[in-house]
Write a structure and sequence with these properties.
- With 254 residues, this protein is α/β, with parallel strands linked by helices.
- 33% of the residues lie in helices and 27% in strands.
- It has helices at residues 40-47, 70-74, 92-97, 112-124, 140-153, 170-187, 198-204, 222-225, 228-235, and strands spanning 2-11, 14-24, 29-33, 55-60, 63-64, 77-80, 158-161, 190-194, 207-212, 215-221, 240-243, 250-253.
- It has a domain at 1-29 and 37-76 and 197-254: P-loop containing nucleotide triphosphate hydrolases (Rossmann fold, 3-Layer(aba) Sandwich), CATH 3.40.50.
- The strands form three sheets. Strands 6-7-8-3-9-10 form a six-stranded mixed beta sheet, sandwiched between helices. A four-stranded antiparallel beta sheet has the order 2-1-4-5, with helices on one face. Strands 11-12 form a two-stranded antiparallel sheet.
- It starts with a strand and ends with a strand.
- The protein is built from nine helices and twelve strands.
Length: 254
C-alpha cells in the first residue's frame, strides 16, 4: 500500500501541501481533482519521489520511499509528468524500451525479457502498428498511448499520471482513459491520475481525492463525491446532478 502521512511541502515560504494524509489501495483508479494550484501536481510528484517533504512521510509497503534507491522505487512506481521529456528523435520501440531502464544494469543491452516486456506493453496499448515510426510523427492520442506503453514496460505496481489527458481532444481523452481503466481491471495496476473533468472521474475512477489550498477537502468513492454539496465544496460552483442516459451514473452540470 502507498500511504501518505501528514505530508507537508513548503517551498520559498509557500506551503504547497499542508498536513495531507491518504492511502492508495491496490487495484484502484484514484482521481486527483481540484482547482489549479490546489496541490495536485505537488502531491503526485511527492508520491513519485520527485519532491522532498518538509514534514510527514510517504511510505510504500510500510517503508519510507526516501529509503528506496531511485531504481528500486522506479521498479515499484512509474511516473508520467505533465511536461513530457523531449523524445522527438526516438522511434516508438526505442521510447518504450526506456521503460526497462530500472531493471537493467549499467550499460546493459536489452535482454529477451526486456524485449518481451516491450512487445507486451505495445500489444496492450495497441501501439505495435507504429513501433518503428518516429514519435514526432504520431498524433496526440497515439503519443499518449506510447508513453503509457513505456510506463507499462517499466513493469510496476503503481502508475502516477499528471494530467495525461490535458492536451488531447475529446476522442483521444476517452480512448486513453478507457485504456487506463482496462489497465486497472485487467493488469491489476493501481493508478493515480490528475483529472480536470469531474464527470470523467465519476465515470472511470473508483475513488476521488480532492485538494483545495494544499489540503484534502474530500476523499471518497464516486457515490459520496457526486453530491451537490461536496462538488460545491471542491469547486466553489453550484452543480446539478443528472443521470447518464446509458450508464445511469451521475453527471454534474454547472
Amino acid at each position: 500500500m502507498l500511504r501518505v502521512n501528514q505530508l507537508t511541502i513548503s517551498r520559498q515560504g509557500n506551503t504547497l501541501l499542508d498536513n495531507v494524509s491518504c492511502e492508495i489501495d491496490s487495484n484502484q483508479l484514484v482521481a486527483l481533482v481540484g482547482h489549479n494550484g490546489s496541490g495536485k501536481s505537488t502531491l503526485i510528484k511527492a508520491l513519485a519521489g520527485e519532491m522532498m517533504s518538509s514534514g510527514g512521510s510517504i511510505s510504500l509497503d510500510e517503508r519510507r520511499i526516501s529509503d528506496y534507491s531511485s531504481k528500486a522505487l522506479a521498479r515499484q512506481m512509474a511516473y508520467l509528468p505533465q511536461q513530457l521529456p523531449e523524445a522527438a528523435g526516438f522511434s516508438v520501440r526505442e521510447l518504450v524500451m526506456l521503460g526497462r531502464y530500472p531493471h537493467q544494469k549499467w550499460l546493459q543491452k536489452p535482454n529477451q525479457m526486456d524485449k518481451d516486456k516491450v512487445i507486451e506493453a505495445m500489444r496492450i496499448t495497441q501501439t505495435e502498428a507504429f513501433a518503428d515510426r518516429i514519435t514526432a510523427t504520431l498524433s496526440g492520442g497515439e503519443r499518449a498511448r506510447v508513453w503509457l506503453a513505456m510506463c507499462l514496460a517499466q513493469d510496476t505496481r503503481y502508475l502516477l499520471l499528471d494530467e495525461p489527458l490535458a492536451a488531447l481532444d475529446m476522442h483521444y481523452q476517452l480512448e486513453v482513459i478507457q485504456l487506463i481503466r482496462r489497465l486497472v481491471d485487467e493488469q491489476g495496476l493501481s493508478v493515480v491520475i490528475i483529472l480536470h473533468d469531474i464527470n470523467l472521474a465519476a465515470q472511470y475512477a473508483d475513488r476521488v481525492i480532492a485538494l483545495k489550498n494544499g489540503r484534502i477537502c474530500h476523499n471518497g468513492d464516486i457515490g459520496s463525491t457526486m453530491q451537490p454539496t461536496v462538488l460545491h465544496k471542491i469547486f466553489n460552483v453550484d452543480m446539478q446532478l443528472l443521470s447518464h442516459p446509458i450508464t445511469g451514473q451521475p453527471v454534474a452540470v454547472a
